[in-house]
C-alpha cells in the first residue's frame, strides 16, 4: 500500500488518538473520589458485566526520551515494596464494592516498566485475583516488559502466576537508535527471549516497535520488520512516535538528533504494512498486526473488535476497566476516573485508608453514542447506523441529528479513496486505515471550538 504524499500533507493535522472518548484531556478536577466510588458500585448493574483490571507500575530505572507514559525513575527497592503494598490495599478497597458474581476477563500490567519489580511482588498481587475472583474461560492476562530486565527465571515466574501474553517493548533492533532515545540494550537477544517464552504452551508473544525515532531510516525500519518476522511473534505493534514536548519535556532532546520527516514516517508505515501482510499477518486498526488465527484477527473479521486504554481486545474479553496504581484510569460504563498523580501522593493516601481520584469524567448519553461510533471506526473500520440506533434504542435519523451529521462530511474521504458509504453503512478502505483518526474526528462534536492540543495524525 502506497500513501500519496498530497494526502499526508492534507490530513497531517492535530487530532485525538481516541484511546477513549472523550479523550483524557477533557477530564476535569470537579469529578471527585466520591463520584468514582459511587460509580464503582453502580457499575455492577451495567454492561459489559466482565471485570477488566489495569495495574500501573510507574517505575523505570532510566527515562526513555520518547516516553509519553507516567513514570517514576528509581532503583529504590524499598519504595517499590511500599508502592506494591499500597496497590494491594487499593485492590482490596475497591474489591469490597464489586459483585463477586462478575468474572475477570482481562488483567493488564502496564507502566513504566512492570518487570523492574522483583517477580515475587507481581506474584503477590496476582494471587489476590486468582484466589478471590472467578475468571472467564481463556482470560487475557498480559504484561508489558522491557527486554533488558528479562531472563528465563523471570519469564518462568511470570507464567507460573498465570500470564497468557508477554509483550516485549523492543522499539528498535539498532543500538544506535536505542542509545539516542536512552533505551537500555538487552543483554539477551530478543529471539532468545521469545524462545524462552515459547517453551510454555499457550503463552503468546507480542513485540512492540516505534517508528519516527532519531537515526531511523526507511531502509533500517524495513530491516527491523524483516528481523521481527523471522522471530515470528503472535502479535506485533508499530507505534507512530507522538512528539508532544509541550506535555513531555524530555522529548525536546530528540530534536537535537533530528526526527524523521512525516513523509519518511509514512514510508516506514508502508514498509511495515507490506512486509507484515506479505508474511501473512492481519492488520488491526492503525498499528497492530496479528496472525490469522489470533483472537483479534478473528474478531476483526467478525466486526466485533473492541478497544480501551489497554489496547485492542475482543468482545469476549471486554470488561469495564478498574485501574489500580498511580495515574491509572478506570473506564466504567458511565465514568472515567484517574488516580493520584505521584507515587508519594498515592502511597500517602492509601496508607491513610483513602483512595484519591484527581480528575474524571461522567459520560452523557450522547458521549456514549459517540464513543461507540468512534470505537467502531477505530476498531472495525466499519459503521452501521442501524446497528448503533438499535443498540441505543433510537432511530438513525435521531442519531444523525444528534451529531449534526450529513453525508457531505464524508465526500472528501470518498474522493480520496479512504472510505465508501451507503445510506446505512460506512466502510473504511485499506488506504483509509492510515487516516482513521481523521475519519473518527468527523463524529466528534466536541472538537469544534476546542482549545485542547493533540499530536498530529502522522
From TrEMBL:
Cofactor note: Binds 1 [4Fe-4S] cluster. The cluster is coordinated with 3 cysteines and an exchangeable S-adenosyl-L-methionine.
Keywords linked to the UniProt accession: 4Fe-4S, Cytoplasm, Iron, Iron-sulfur, Metal-binding, Oxidoreductase, Porphyrin biosynthesis, S-adenosyl-L-methionine
Pathway(s): Porphyrin-containing compound metabolism; protoporphyrin-IX biosynthesis; protoporphyrinogen-IX from coproporphyrinogen-III (AdoMet route): step 1/1
Catalytic activity: coproporphyrinogen III + 2 S-adenosyl-L-methionine = protoporphyrinogen IX + 2 5'-deoxyadenosine + 2 L-methionine + 2 CO2
GO BP of this protein: protoporphyrinogen IX biosynthetic process
Subcellular location: Cytoplasm
Protein name (record): Coproporphyrinogen-III oxidase
Amino acid at each position: 500500500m502506497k500513501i500519496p504524499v498530497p494526502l499526508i500533507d492534507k490530513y497531517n493535522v492535530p487530532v485525538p488518538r481516541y484511546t477513549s472518548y472523550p479523550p483524557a484531556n477533557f477530564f476535569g478536577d470537579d469529578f471527585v473520589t466520591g463520584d468514582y466510588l459511587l460509580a464503582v458500585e453502580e457499575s455492577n448493574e451495567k454492561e459489559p458485566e466482565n471485570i477488566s483490571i489495569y495495574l500501573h507500575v510507574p517505575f523505570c530505572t532510566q527515562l526513555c526520551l520518547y516516553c509519553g507514559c507516567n513514570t517514576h525513575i528509581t532503583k529504590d527497592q524499598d519504595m517499590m515494596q511500599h508502592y506494591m503494598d499500597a496497590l494491594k490495599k487499593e485492590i482490596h478497597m475497591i474489591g469490597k464494592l464489586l459483585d463477586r458474581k462478575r468474572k475477570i476477563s482481562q488483567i493488564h500490567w502496564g507502566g513504566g516498566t512492570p518487570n523492574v519489580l522483583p517477580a515475587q511482588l507481581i506474584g503477590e498481587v496476582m494471587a489476590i485475583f486468582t484466589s478471590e475472583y472467578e475468571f472467564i474461560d481463556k482470560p487475557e492476562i498480559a504484561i508489558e516488559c522491557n527486554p533488558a530486565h528479562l531472563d528465563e527465571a523471570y519469564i518462568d515466574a511470570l507464567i507460573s502466576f498465570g500470564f497468557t501474553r508477554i509483550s516485549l517493548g523492543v522499539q528498535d533492533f539498532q543500538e544506535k537508535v536505542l542509545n539516542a532515545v536512552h533505551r537500555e540494550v538487552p543483554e539477551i537477544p530478543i529471539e532468545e527471549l521469545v524462545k524462552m517464552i515459547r517453551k510454555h504452551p499457550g503463552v503468546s508473544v507480542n513485540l512492540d516497535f516505534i517508528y519516527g525515532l532519531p537515526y531511523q531510516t526507511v531502509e533500517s525500519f524495513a530491516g527491523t520488520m524483516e528481523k521481527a518476522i523471522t522471530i515470528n511473534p503472535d502479535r506485533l505493534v508499530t507505534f507512530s512516535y507522538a512528539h508532544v514536548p509541550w506535555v513531555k519535556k524530555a522529548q525536546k532532546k530528540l530534536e537535537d538528533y533530528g526526527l524523521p520527516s512525516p513523509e519518511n514516517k509514512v514510508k516506514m508505515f508502508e514498509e511495515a504494512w507490506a512486509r507484515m501482510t506479505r508474511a501473512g499477518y492481519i492488520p488491526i486498526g492503525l498499528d497492530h498486526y496479528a496472525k490469522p488465527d489470533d483472537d483479534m484477527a478473528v474478531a476483526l473479521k467478525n466486526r466485533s473488535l473492541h478497544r480501551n486504554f489497554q489496547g485492542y481486545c475482543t468482545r469476549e474479553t471486554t470488561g469495564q476497566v478498574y485501574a489500580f496504581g498511580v495515574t491509572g484510569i478506570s473506564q466504567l460504563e458511565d465514568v472515567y476516573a484517574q488516580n493520584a498523580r505521584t507515587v508519594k501522593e498515592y502511597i500517602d493516601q492509601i496508607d491513610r485508608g483513602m483512595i484519591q481520584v484527581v480528575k474524571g469524567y461522567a459520560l452523557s448519553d450522547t458521549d456514549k453514542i459517540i464513543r461507540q461510533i468512534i470505537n467502531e471506526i477505530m476498531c472495525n473500520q466499519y459503521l452501521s447506523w442501524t446497528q448503533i440506533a438499535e443498540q441505543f434504542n433510537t432511530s438513525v435519523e435521531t442519531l444523525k441529528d444528534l451529531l449534526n451529521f450529513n453525508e457531505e462530511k464524508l465526500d472528501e474521504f470518498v474522493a480520496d479513496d479512504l472510505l465508501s458509504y451507503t445510506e446505512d453503512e460506512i466502510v473504511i478502505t485499506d488506504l483509509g486505515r492510515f487516516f482513521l483518526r481523521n475519519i473518527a474526528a468527523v463524529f466528534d462534536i466536541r472538537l469544534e471550538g476546542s482549545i485542547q492540543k493533540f499530536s498530529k495524525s502522522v
